[in-house]
Amino acid sequence: MIGKNSLFGPVDPAKEAGYEDHPPRKGFFTDTSICIGCKACEVACKEWNDVPDHGFDMLGSSYDNSHSLNADQWRHVAFIEQPRRTGDQEPGLRRPPVDLGMPTVAPNGNEVTLPDGTVGEKPDFRWLMSSDVCKHCTHAACLDVCPTGSLFRTEFGTVVVQDDICNGCGYCVPACPYGVIDRRKGDTDNGKAILNEGVAQKCTLCYDRLKADQKPACAQACPTESIQYGDVEELRERADRRVAQLHEAGIMDARLYGNDPNDGVGGTGAFFLLLDEPEVYGFPPDPVVTTKDLPHMFNRATAAALAMLAGAAISFLGRRG
Amino acid sequence: MSPGVERSGLANERPAREAVIGSSGSGQARRRRGGRRRGGGGERSMVPEAEFTSYYGRPVVKPAPWEHDIPAYLFSGGLAAGSSLLAAGGDLNDLPALRRTGRLAALGALGFSMAALVHDLGRPARFLNMLRTVKLTSPMSVGTWILSIYGPFAGAAAAAEVVGMLPEDRLPRPLRLLRLAGRPTGLMAGLTAPPVAAYTAVLLADTATPSWHAAYRELPFVFVSSALAASGGLGMVSAPKEQAGPARRMAIGGAVVELLAEKQMERSMGITAEPLHKGRAGKLMKAAKVLTAVGATGALLGGRSRAVAVVSGAALMAGSACTRFGVFEAGQESARDPKYTVVPQRERLDRGEPVRYQG
């Protein structure tokens, strides 16, 4: 059924897909401000989903050697080194200070006491780390353009590839505004047959685990709860509180990305708290689902087709030779 | 839940997901020139290089995993469609040579198209899965169904044409019936042909590939006119000059509209028109323009000379092929360079005009 917001605008994706009675929409809130870059999510994802491990390379881009989200990388941790001060980082592991009754001088924000007792300036450096994943868009272009129906909307509002249906047409790959989904190449792995070779692959939000009422593997493995899994509605509220908390602490760069149901993709099921502009992390700053413009494209193509017919007819007016 | 943690921290508390990280620096300007710089072949631009940020210059969106099968199909699909139109017109206007070459060309081009499409699949053996659903939001699904309707008509018309070339008295009865089907199937092929040429523009435009999506208003017109130019060119090459008048007019008209529509397209694309002028795509687009202009001029001035007609027709076909390969390559390049994804989006954010649902 085609509703008012079928191609654009806020909508409940599972209901839109025809589920009458469905569980609440599930998703991720990835809070990058507490990501420590351990890549446990990448490993857990590969282990659980049997994702091939080829494609690693020394890339010379900080600690990132898994390059990007692609058919063989369903979680990808980005590492960004910036010449900016972080201020005090609170790991929460400090011993309680012992009060010796001595006079002290309040430290200024940019000073740090070195192990030998001298006071130095903090380095002009900060590290941003962010675990990227499929966004499970409300309006998912990959799903819209899939000609076989291999990509489908689950009852949890997520987007999943049916490996045995996909014929590898590759249309979903350029359709994704985030560059997530990819066709799996089958060239290596020591001559072994590769699982789902030639087929589109991406994060399933651990559809199998969700059906067993389990957390997705990456969220389960995340040691800092940077990756939080839950009902999207609740996660959005949690994210709002978190960003307010960070703003109150003076971290005005904190912002949410993908949480707005009115944005270009109708909001994402997996959204993020970022500490810099989205493009710094490799995200598109204002993504839009391409099918938003599909009705317009259809009209233009229809006009062009009619023009072609008319043009051909006109060609037959006049001399034969 | 652990309590909120201030900058100084709480003794022996593990703030977990509520940990407050250090306060960040001031909101200093931090755009830097991003993206890769490729040398060679680039023209000097008077417009300053757009500044933008990216993640190590890596692409944001992914280029389509398509080989040259796809632009070759864009060309041959258009050629098939235009040839069917020429054949239908030839049939109605008693131009048998034009009808025959059109029908045969359509089948040949269509056969090549199908082979290219199947070959480009990651799992060619599963190509029939295209037909397991009808999906209006998928231009590829719609296109498959368009081809599935057009294909049999074009095939039957061509078969009737072949049967018609055989001596009639030696034909088995069913094949004689097939000859009768030539006109209705040929006309149906002509009627269903234009969508074959037009949908491929939507196929490219309905993606996040910057230089394809930004072209969605004009690309259908570029593609159908390119198809008319190519099939008109083929008609000029293959039909005798006594019957090639319509093919010539179709070729000239298609070429002129293609050049105009392409120009308008580039104007409306903003920064994403850049890849159409750079590198391989730039060379292809330039070649397309020159070949199309030369072919059209030749057809206009000397089209009644057999030699000029053949050369002009070939130039028009080559020009059409270059257009398809050029547009394809430009899109792929626009996906590989984050600039074309980030800059237009950042610009509309900075203008305070993000894409938001307005109700």
Verbal overview:
The complex is a heterodimer of chains A (321) and B (359). Chain A is α+β, with helices and mostly antiparallel strands and 321 residues long. Helix content of chain A is 22%, strand content 16%. Chain A has eight helices and twelve strands. Chain A has helices at 13-16, 40-49, 141-145, 172-175, 207-211, 217-221, 232-248, 294-315, and strands at 26-31, 75-82, 111-113, 119-121, 126-133, 151-153, 159-161, 182-183, 200-201, 227-231, 255-257, 270-274. The radius of gyration of chain A is 25 Å and the shape is elongated. The model of chain A is unreliable at 89-94 (pLDDT under 50). Chain B is built from eleven helices and no strands. Chain B is globular, with a radius of gyration of 26 Å. The model of chain B is unreliable at 1-12 and 23-43 (pLDDT under 50). Classes of the chains: A alpha+beta (321), B mainly alpha (359). Chains A and B meet through strand 2, helix 3, helix 4, strand 8 and helix 7 of A and helix 1, helix 3, helix 5, helix 7 and helix 8 of B.
Sheet with the most strands of chain B? none
Q: Proportion of β residues of chain B?
A: under 5%
What oligomeric state do the depicted chains represent? Answer: heterodimer
Q: Which shape of chain B, going by the Cα principal axes? A: globular
The biggest chain-chain interface is:
A-B, 122 and 122 residues
Order of helices and strands of chain B: HHHHHHHHHHH
- Distance between the amino and carboxyl termini of chain A: 52 Å
Mean pLDDT of chain A: 90
* DSSP E strands of chain B, number: 0
Structural class of chain A: alpha+beta
Please state the structural category of chain B. mainly alpha
| Tally of contiguous helical segments of chain B | 11
